[in-house]
Amino acid sequence: MARYLSQKQIDEFRECFNLYDRKNLNKISTRDVITVMRSLGTYPTKKEIESHFKTYDKKNGDDIEFSTFLNIMHQQLSQENAAKEILAAFKQSDWEKKGFVTVQEVRQILTRTGEKLTSRECDLLLRSANVQSNGYIKYDEFVSFITSPLPDY
């Protein structure tokens, strides 16, 4: 797996993996895998996790070793591109292909579809992205903002 992942990625994955390796056996429970993966910036669905487990003949409650976890992370990273998926969704809402959508459209999408945000969460997200409440959102900039990693303080 080392040929597909950088040493920096492997080190980061190891550090997070070790937080859930409570017995120091180089293993974590499959129940913790989705949490670890999301902590590392991937967004697997439950179906994707089940598919990964099926590949390695694992069931919920089994343990997986770090090497298997690296393989799962590589597969997930290869198949997922959150920015591209979100941008495609915005482009479908932009009928006139102007490169922006209204704040009301974004608010409606965020609070009524997928993993719904509350109105308060939506307000916080829009405020942190410096979006004016009565304006338009350039969706390419907005997607870049929401998919960029959080600063490591």
UniProtKB/TrEMBL annotation:
Keywords: Acetylation, Repeat
GO terms under cellular component: myosin II complex
InterPro entries from the UniProt entry: CALM/Myosin/TropC-like, EF-hand-dom_pair, EF_hand_dom
Residue span, EF-hand domain: 8-43, 81-116
Origin superkingdom: Eukaryota
Gene3D superfamilies the UniProt entry points to: EF-hand
GO molecular function: calcium ion binding
UniProt similarity note: Belongs to the calmodulin family.
Name of this protein: EF-hand domain-containing protein
Organism annotation: Oikopleura dioica (Tunicate)
